[in-house]
Amino acid sequence: MGRKHAAHIRPNIKHRRCHRTYTRRAPTYATAFNGWHVTLGEQYAADISPPPGGRCLDLACGTGLVTFPLAKAVGQDGLVVGVDVTPAMLDVARKREREEGWGRVEFVEGDIADLSEVEPVQDVVRESGFDVISCCSALVLLADPAAAIKHWADMLKKGGKLITDVPTETHTLQYLFSWELRRAMGLQNEFDRSWVENIHSLEKLCADAGLIVNKSWKTASQGGEGEEYRLEDGEEVFEQNVKKYSDFMDLEKLDETRQKFLEMWRRECQRSDGVFKDGHWLYMTIAKKP
């Protein structure tokens, strides 16, 4: 088991909310949403293609769905450090059986926005820096993503690469349930994607951090292309999805929540000629340290 360095984590409200949400999600995180997190993790490792024997840092590593594909890619001479703020997610990751020939993996509890006191990370930085830093499905959880990317860029070696993603600006069912509906109900949100205007929004953060953008692209919808719905489907859509997205919600006021959703649903359908197309698209960027 890797060393733990959690003393520097500030117990702020956002951390506590993330702890609650991801503690609940930890046992089923790999299988949720038809397992698309697993597919995304494998895509991450394939897209970034870390060098054999390389040093990788997987931020917001969760249950290791990017960490382990990276460990396979770097081979037995490599190292992957996974950092996450939620102990329950790390517990699941540490219990996973490692395969022969994989690189060494070390999981550490820590705040990915401030890694200055996370010793396994700083050990690599002092040695030479990381070949690869990945941050999957977490950038919009951070209060200051621009500052975080600058912090991470400092830990890359020359020629090292960062790979990360953000949801597109497209309104999806996940967005409606986990952001707009929470806001309409007066609940605090765990993430903020309001700064994502287009594919260039993430590129700009990387460029401002002194990185050179190698590649950006919009993914296919994770978990399939989804379905099309119409205005009259609102009640059915709510009933089918309210439990699916319950991790993001407080359902004590179910009737009021339903009413708020239906008002929102009417606005969304009116914006798109009466049709709502669901999916889960991402903007991905790979950027290199010059």
Helix content: 25-40%
Under CATH, the topology of the largest domain can be stated as: Rossmann fold
Cross-sheet strand order for the largest sheet: 3-2-1-4-5-9-6
Radius of gyration: 19 Å
Largest pleated sheet: 7 strands, mixed
Indicate the mean pLDDT.
88
Domain Methyltransferase: 53-168
Keywords: Methyltransferase, Transferase
GO molecular function: methyltransferase activity
Organism: Cyphellophora attinorum
Task: Write a structural description.
The chain is α/β, with parallel strands linked by helices and 290 residues long. The protein folds into two domains: 13-169 and 188-223 and 279-288, Rossmann fold (3-Layer(aba) Sandwich); 228-277, no CATH class. The chain is built from ten helices and nine strands. It has helices at 13-25, 32-48, 67-74, 87-95, 119-127, 145-153, 173-184, 200-208, 234-241, 254-271; strands at residues 55-59, 79-84, 104-109, 130-135, 156-167, 212-218, 228-230, 275-277, 282-288. The strands form two sheets. It has a seven-stranded mixed sheet, sandwiched between helices. A two-stranded antiparallel ribbon has the order 7-8. Helix 2 (32-48) runs parallel beside helix 3 (67-74) and helix 7 (173-184) crosses helix 10 (254-271). The longest helix is centred in the last third of the chain and has 18 residues, at 254-271. The chain is globular, with a radius of gyration of 19 Å. Mean pLDDT is 88; it is low at 1-13. Keywords: Methyltransferase, Transferase. Residues 53-168 form the Methyltransferase domain.
